[in-house]
Automatic annotation (TrEMBL):
CDD domains (alphabetical): MDR_like_2
Xref: Pfam families: ADH_N, ADH_zinc_N_2
MF terms in GO: oxidoreductase activity
Enoyl reductase (ER) domain segment(s): 15-330
Protein name, as recorded: NADPH:quinone oxidoreductase
Coiled-coil stretches noted in the UniProt entry, renumbered to this chain: none
Organism: Ahniella affigens
Length: 343
């Protein structure tokens, strides 16, 4: 099969498309012919080597963290899917590789594709939608009437998080550039701050939750807008000890993560708020609930550009510019080859 492969970590160049063996199908796996794959900043960060300590992948590595496609074969113990099913998924962090013709995924990490979406639209959802769900529903337990500040509202996570927060009945504030104010308002944002003209900390007060996705300056700024008992939840770091324990890291690494987050946790404690870090995990059942919300019209994907598979490197470079509105996707032409043979 064809796949976009990383042979070494580095800032210049991410990899190349070449032939790779098709994935081995486990007893609880489904083999999916990938029709489209979402492109994320995470893919570029993995290629740069930024996650080598916490995600020690063995090279060569097929990049890609989310996809939509058709089930072609199932393992002997699979009960939820059958060949021909249209599905979407974020594979487990240890089994990534969606920039390829095929991928084997545990059935627990897969969900039926939203019926109302194209393959490209569906492929744009799993990583960002699961991130928004696990921050707002699981970690924040966001309730109707609460106030949430979502940074970078026009980005991949931001566009989904705004819609999910509004579905949950929250009051939503966000930041974006002047060019994207109309977009985030159309998604339901109640307060929109042009980050080029206004200081968030002077505009917002007494918020219950902050979804942080930017840098250290914005992290500490966010502390000042939370009410006592509020929750600052970061998806961009610094990671904390709970994250390390969840990944099963050794106690020295748990100590390292605890040290990395010490400063922000200390400041949060002084202000009577709570800091935590979320690294999104694969979860097929949650994707099923998200698909139902999509098909009901409660949330919709925001798709910026679709690149052909042969331009995967260009898609990654575009995502790294930070200018994408919503998500970027690469589209594969479905292979006519038998999934048990090389293509």
């Amino acid at each position: 099969m064809k796949a976009y492969v990383l042979d070494r970590y580095g800032r210049k160049g991410h990899g190349a498309i070449r032939d790779m063996p098709e994935p081995t199908l486990g007893e609880q796996d489904v083999l999916v012919e990938i029709h489209a794959a979402g492109v994320n900043p995470l893919d570029a960060k993995i290629a740069h080597g930024e996650f080598k300590l916490v995600l020690p992948y063995r090279l060569p590595l097929i990049l890609g963290n989310e996809m939509a496609g058709i089930v072609r074969r199932v393992g002997a113990r699979v009960t939820r899917f059958k060949p021909g099913d249209a599905v979407y998924a974020r594979p487990d962090k240890n089994r990534i590789g969606t920039f390829a013709n095929y991928i084997a995924v545990n059935e627990a990490d897969v969900a039926t594709k939203p019926e109302s979406l194209s393959m490209e639209q569906a492929a744009s959802l799993p990583l960002v939608a699961l991130t928004a769900w696990q921050v707002l529903v699981e970690r924040a337990n966001l309730q109707k009437g609460q106030r949430v500040f979502i940074q970078a509202g026009s980005g991949g996570v931001g566009t989904l998080a705004i819609q999910l927060a509004k579905h949950l009945g929250a009051f939503v504030a966000t930041t974006t550039s002047n060019a994207n104010i109309g977009l985030v308002k159309s998604l339901g944002a109640d307060v929109v701050i042009d980050y080029g003209k206004e200081d968030v900390a002077t505009v917002l007060r007494d918020y219950d939750v902050v979804l942080h996705s930017l840098g250290a300056d914005q992290l500490e700024q966010s502390l000042r807008i939370l009410k006592p008992g509020g929750k600052l939840i970061s998806i961009s770091g610094p990671p904390d000890a709970d994250f390390a324990r969840a990944l099963g890291m050794s106690w020295p690494m748990v100590s390292v993560m605890k040290l990395l987050s010490y400063r922000i946790r200390r400041k949060a404690k002084r202000l009577g708020v709570h800091y935590s870090f979320v690294f999104m995990r694969a979860q097929g059942d949650q994707l099923g609930q998200i698909a139902a919300l999509v098909d009901s019209g409660a949330i919709r994907p925001v798709l910026d550009r679709v690149f052909p598979f042969e331009s995967t490197a260009d898609a990654l470079a575009y995502v790294e510019t930070g200018r994408a509105k919503g998500k970027v996707v690469v589209s594969m032409k479905p292979s006519s080859a038998d999934p048990g043979a090389s293509s």
